[in-house]
């Protein structure tokens, strides 16, 4: 089986301005060739994707989006942005089903699956996010919740999909699961994918996300079954994001 190329993705969320796009070149200047062993991705707010793609030209930094419409046809959908438009603007990936969208915007796994399908149809790689809340973890329901989200959110043709395991309680905070806990849930994700897709599930990259920073990245990358990270806060500044990328053994 070919090795899965690690993916280290930065999710800028609703932060940054045009001036922040200078971080893209700065990132490349810091990581340069070392990043050849990994896919380094930045997902800025949608209005900056075109500019971000220009800023990333000539570097190895990839650009992605944070969400897309589930609607595939050009149609009257005020405020929506289609996956095809994001691809046209220069995005290569799109995050779907982030817990902030599931909880604050009421997105169901069924909607997330349709968004992922729209992404695939437009030639984008969807990063499908899954993860349990603190209450679900305390109740011992991690495998049930995460397994269910993987079953319901990942489209049938999974070949080009990335899954990001992001425990909701670890996002934007200071606590992360232990390396053993991360490995345990990654095995649940891989097992659930294997139930649906057999050996093809081996090709799917599974990222960890939630309070990844320069200090803990190397330890998390070493966890069994972790194929990279989805990074929020620490991706906004090139110096921090570069330190995370350089913490990956494949970026040496
Ligand atoms: P964080 O966010 O790194 O700021 O915890 C991660 C995410 O929400 O993707």
CATH superfamily: Aldolase class I
Structural class: alpha/beta
Helix fraction bin? 25-40%
CATH class: Alpha Beta
Termini separation comes to: 23 Å
What strand order characterises the main sheet? 1-2-3-4-5-6-7-8
Query: Number of DSSP strands?
Result: 8
| CATH topology name | TIM Barrel
* Low-pLDDT windows of residues: none
Biggest β-sheet: count, sense, barrel? 8 strands, parallel, barrel
CATH architecture: Alpha-Beta Barrel
Mean pLDDT, as a whole number? Answer: 95
Any idea what the shape is? globular
* Count of alpha/pi helices: 10
Structurally, how many domains make up the residues?
1
Tell me what the structure shows:
This protein has helices spanning 22-31, 49-56, 83-89, 99-104, 109-121, 134-138, 142-153, 179-197, 217-221, 238-246; strands spanning 7-11, 39-43, 62-65, 93-96, 125-130, 162-165, 205-209, 228-231. It has one domain (7-68, 81-251): Aldolase class I (TIM Barrel). It has 252 residues and is of the alpha/beta class. It has an eight-stranded parallel β-barrel, surrounded by six helices. The protein is 37% helix and 15% strand. It binds 2-phosphoglycolic acid. 2-phosphoglycolic acid binds next to β8.
